[in-house]
Description:
alpha+beta; five-stranded mixed beta sheet; 27% helix; 20% strand; binds zinc ion
Amino acid sequence: MAEVPEVETIVRDLREAVVGQTVRETDVLQPAAVRFPTVDEFTALVTDRIFLEAQRRAKYILLPLSGDIELAVHFALWGTLVLVPTEQSRLPETLIIWHLDQDQDMRLVDKLGYARAAVGTPDVLAERLDLNSLGPEALDPNFDVDILSRQLIRRRGVLKTVLLNQRVLAGLGNRDADESLWLAAIDPRRSAASLTSDELIRLHTAIGKVLAEGIALRGTQRDLFGHKGQAIHRRNIFEKSGQPCPRCSTRIAYLRIGGRNTFYCPNCQH
Ligand SMILES: [Zn+2]
């Protein structure tokens, strides 16, 4: 599943292998994959431009191009980008292909077909993707326990739901929220505003650890070059209902919170 460690892994790969390359041609195979503008405008705006940088904001990949244009890519649940030789056969789930230099393609692929790309000036992208409403980045070196506390203190909602609200905190997906709450030994059903200062410190530390570990293991999906990340083996509770909690051996419980699958230990998360 494409959460922040998976997206960040791809962004780092893009910096290494795509920044500096020119888009020679653009093929939109699935028109629905272009969020805006029209497919023709999208193709015309991106083609013949050079990738200048690769950045991430929440789960958006932002690729500034020459000429004050930016390409934004969002993977939704299972999308990804791959860099392959142009001659390599296309997977049926290929949505968009950017032909680059040296007979290489960058391809947006998604077996569910939900991944999206958009292009515009940085101002247009910020407005239409609502980028300025996003909360502080959990991976930002300046993200400290005071910021977490400030973001949660006035929120009456259920903790798990509040943590997934990207306007409160950008960077926690469903899986990483469950793993962080387990690591911090905090019950996901609590009210966000009810956390003590000790619990806030534990949660802040846990979020940092879960994200850093996910990135160090290069996520759970394949990277830009097709190598599989190793983080899937390091989950403690996510999608493990009925299995023993690694901390106290109680069976891991499952419930839906705010419409999202939630896994937690009913014994050691308070
Ligand atoms: Zn437990």
